[in-house]
Amino acid sequence: MVVGAGPVGSRRARTLADAGAEVVVVAPHTDPALDELVASGRVELVRRTFDPGDVAGAVLVVAATGSSEVDRAVEVAAHEAGALLNAAGDSSRSDLAFPATVRRGPVTFAVSTGGRSPSTARWLAALLDERLGELIELGPHGYGVLVEVVEAVRGELAAASGRSGATGATPGAVDWRRALDGSILDLIDQGRPAEAKERLLACLSSS
Fold first, then answer.
1. For residue 24, which of 7, 8, 5, 33 has the smallest C-alpha distance?
2. Same domain, 23 and 90
3. Which of 125, 148, 188, 191 is surrounded by the fewest CB atoms within 10 Å?
4. Is the domain of 124 the same as that of 86?
C-alpha cells in the first residue's frame, strides 16, 4: 500500500507494480505518473484521505504524503498492523529503502544509499542513465535481446552438460563478462540475435 500520490508516492507505486505486487494507493489527489498506472490497471486508487483502517492486510506500507503529521499516522497504523514501513520523508523510521532505478527493457539497474540520501541515489541513477550507452554499447531494445540470447545459450549449455559424456562449459562456470565481448554485443545491436547466439555458443564451446 502507498499513502500519498505525489512524485515520490508515484515512483514507489511503480516500483512495487513492476515487481509484481498488488498495489493500492490512498490519496485525495494524484499526479499524471500515477494516473497512467491506474488507467493501465496496474495500481488500484482509493481517492480520499488516509484512514488507519486502510492498512489492514497490507504487507508493506509506504508513507509519502509530504505531511509529517499524516505520515506519522500512517507509520503508527502500519506498525500496529504488523506491516513493514517505508517512510519516504525519514529513512531512520523505515524498515526498508527503495533504490533509484534505471530500466532498459527487462534489465533494471538499482542505485541505493540504504535510505541515507535518496537524492544522491537519484542523481547517480540519472548519471548512469545518461552515460550507460558509453559503458554498454547497446540501443534501448538491445538489452531485451541480450537477455533472450544469454537465456537461450544457458539452456543449451545446461542441456549439453546433462547428456552422458558431455564436455565443455556449464552455465555456472562461464565467465560471462569475458564471453560477452564487443563482437557479440555488436551483432545484437545490429538486430542479428541468431548470429550472436551462435558466436557465443562457439566461444563457450571452445573454452
1. 5
2. yes
3. 191
4. no
DSSP 165: T
Same domain membership, residue 59 and residue 26: yes
**DSSP string spanning 51-82?**
-GGGGTT-SEEEE-SS-HHHHHHHHHHHHHTT
Q: Tell me the pLDDT of the chain (207 aa) as tens digits.
A: 999 988 999 999 999 998 899 999 999 999 898 999 999 999 999 999 999 999 999 999 999 999 999 999 999 999 999 999 999 878 889 999 899 999 999 999 999 998 888 889 999 999 999 999 888 889 888 999 999 999 999 898 888 877 645 555 565 567 787 888 789 999 999 999 999 999 998 888 776
Domain that holds residue 20: 2-98
Contact call for residues 196 and 148 (beta carbons, < 8 A): no
- Give the three cell numbers for residue 153: 545459450
Q: Is 167 exposed, middle or buried (0-12, 13-18, 19+ CB in 10 A)?
A: exposed
Which of the 8 DSSP states describes residue 93?
G
Domain count, the chain: 3
Beta strands in the chain (DSSP E): 2-3, 23-26, 43-46, 60-63, 84-87, 100-104, 107-111
- Out of 135, 161, 187, pick the residue that ends a domain: 135
